[in-house]
Specification:
The protein has 2 domains: about 5-200, NAD(P)-binding Rossmann-like Domain (Rossmann fold, 3-Layer(aba) Sandwich), CATH 3.40.50.720; about 245-440, Rossmann fold. The strands form 3 sheets. Strands 3-2-1-4-5-6 form a 6-stranded parallel β-sheet, sandwiched between helices. It has 18 helices and 14 strands. By secondary structure, the chain is an alpha/beta fold. Helices cover about 40% and strands about 15% of the residues. It is elongated, with a radius of gyration of 25 Å. Bound molecules: uridine-5'-diphosphate-xylopyranose. Uridine-5'-diphosphate-xylopyranose binds near residues 157, 219 and 266. Uridine-5'-diphosphate-xylopyranose binds next to helix 9.
């Protein structure tokens, strides 16, 4: 059944959601206050790189089921309104900035009375601190017929279309489960998602706060998992172990699972970093800051991996002043042109700050990188050109074309065959055999031993395949099984 619906805020999440809803057969109008973005979308031009998005955008526009506007008055007759506004980190702290969401709800409340009390559903999709939905519901309470439901979005960039049309689960947060109002809201959203529910996607109904916490906890868990393996990575560097061996073996325990155990330069992007900080800030506000204190360490481990890459560059080149370094990758992850909190760009800036002449290359993200970095580093779209004459290559975003680089051919381009693999995607032995000095995060710097011990510390244990435990009563020693 076709529903007339709106999507307010057509950033990454909202634009994909709007096109996906048109794909499901609904009449969709997307709204944003950014007129440039609206004209681009209306012309079928995706404002970001996302596989499959352009096709569903154009299909929606061509079918007449999808259009875009900057005017709230155009939304007045929609039965369902999705809120896809961004909730960035506040300029003055760790908390989430809810000003876009507040402004959108205020504008929407002005036009809702045009429905004359007919049932109207407002559906929040943004990532918000627990308690936000209840406050917004109070603001909408005076509008006759309007209900609010919180339906967090779990989409990953690079898989956004698939994650929207074929999600792992649908979470519905309601004012009070099992009341007639909640059942009415749930039934309305079920109609919108009917084709998704037919595919047997699990649908979970819960209170507002639980739905808000599902999203915050999911992202915090993922960030923690990445930082966990990156912390182990530091231990691997200290002991001469290979973190990819450790990750592979622990990931085979299906209670742990192998996903999100890729050690490297850590997480970035528009979600995980800001969401763990907002989660901590929210916990503080609710008086349980200590409970989420470990997320500070998750953030710190993530930060240290970036520092470690710069340290490795120093270990390989000595003084970095005027040394030529090429950074492979600008996006925070492959298949995206998003450079928000990108580890690759952050490391490029740090190398530049240490005096190096840095060239950054990326197949999709150089426009965004340029906007973020200004003229700080050189941007070169062609990989070969970027590599020509460089003294150190640093792989920081694992695009396929960088994973698949041929070490022999690449050696013929560079000035010196030195590589830092910040994502553990190259096979060190193959590169060493081709004459490269290669260092990785969480892997021994040479095939035969741990990285050199820092001055003033105990010598690192020899790589005997066994770690000597510190002196401890025999009964506490781990016995081989
Ligand atoms: C994330 C969540 O996955 C998604 O569910 C949520 O809705 C939004 O935030 P996204 O930001 O698109 O999605 O990126 P994701 O694929 O989760 O990767 C985040 C970062 O972690 C990237 O920088 C990636 O390179 C890094 N990462 C991921 C690792 O360093 N190691 C891993 O094993 C996995």
């Amino acid at each position: 059944m076709t529903t007339t619906l709106s999507v307010i805020g057509v950033g990454y999440l909202g634009a994909v959601h709007a096109a996906a809803m048109a794909e499901l057969g609904h009449d969709v109008i997307g709204l944003d206050i950014d007129a440039e973005r609206i004209s681009a979308l209306q012309a079928g031009i995706p404002p970001f790189h996302e596989p499959g998005f352009e096709q569903i955008l154009r299909r929606g526009l061509d079918s007449g089921r999808l259009r875009f506007t900057t005017d709230y008055a155009d939304l007045a007759h929609a039965e369902v309104h999705f809120l896809g506004l961004g909730t960035p980190q506040r300029a003055d702290g760790f908390g989430a900035d809810l000003s876009h969401l507040d402004a959108a709800v205020a504008s929407l409340a002005q036009v809702l009375p045009a429905r004359g009390g007919a049932p109207t559903l407002v559906v929040g999709k943004s990532t918000v601190p627990a308690g936000t939905a209840r406050v917004l519901a109070e603001r909408l309470a005076p509008v006759e017929g309007a209900d609010l439901l919180w339906n967090p979005e779990f989409l990953r960039e690079g898989f956004a279309v698939q994650d929207t049309l074929d999600p792992d689960r649908l979470v519905y947060g309601v004012h009070e489960p099992e009341t007639p109002a909640a059942e009415r809201a749930v039934a309305m959203l079920d109609r919108v998602y009917a084709r998704i529910l037919e595919r047997e996607a699990p649908r979970l109904v819960m209170g507002y706060e639980a739905a808000e916490l599902v999203k915050a906890s999911a992202n915090a868990f993922l960030a923690t998992k990445i930082s966990f393996i990156n912390a182990v990575s530091e231990m691997c560097e200290a002991t001469g172990a290979d973190v990819t061996d450790v990750a592979r073996a622990i990931g085979m325990d299906d209670r742990i699972g192998s996903k999100f155990l890729r050690a490297g330069v850590g997480f970035g992007g528009g979600c995980l970093p800001k969401d763990i900080r907002a989660f901590m800030a929210s916990a503080e506000q609710h008086g349980v800051g200590e409970a989420l204190g470990f997320l500070r360490e998750v953030d710190a481990v993530n930060e240290r991996r970036r520092t470690r890459v710069v340290e490795l560059a120093g270990e390989m080149l000595g003084d970095l002043t005027d040394r030529r370094i090429t950074v492979l990758g600008a996006a925070f992850k492959p298949d995206s042109d998003d450079t928000r909190d990108s580890p690759a760009l952050d490391v490029a800036c740090r190398l530049r700050a240490a005096g190096a002449q840095v060239t950054v290359t990326d197949p999709q993200a150089l426009d965004n990188a340029g906007r973020r970095l200004g003229g700080l580093v050189e941007l070169e779209p062609d990989t070969d050109e970027a590599l020509r004459g460089t003294e150190l290559t640093v792989l920081l975003t694992e695009w396929d074309q960088y994973r698949e680089l041929d070490p022999v051919r690449t050696a013929s381009l560079v000035e010196a065959p030195r590589m830092i693999d910040g994502r553990n995607v190259l096979t060190p032995q193959v590169w060493r055999e081709a004459g490269w000095e290669i260092r990785s995060l969480g892997r021994a710097s040479t095939p035969n031993g741990p990285r050199p011990t820092a001055p003033g510390t105990e010598p690192a244990p020899a790589r005997t395949g066994r770690i000597d435990a510190p002196a401890a009563p025999a009964r506490n020693r781990l016995q081989p099984v």
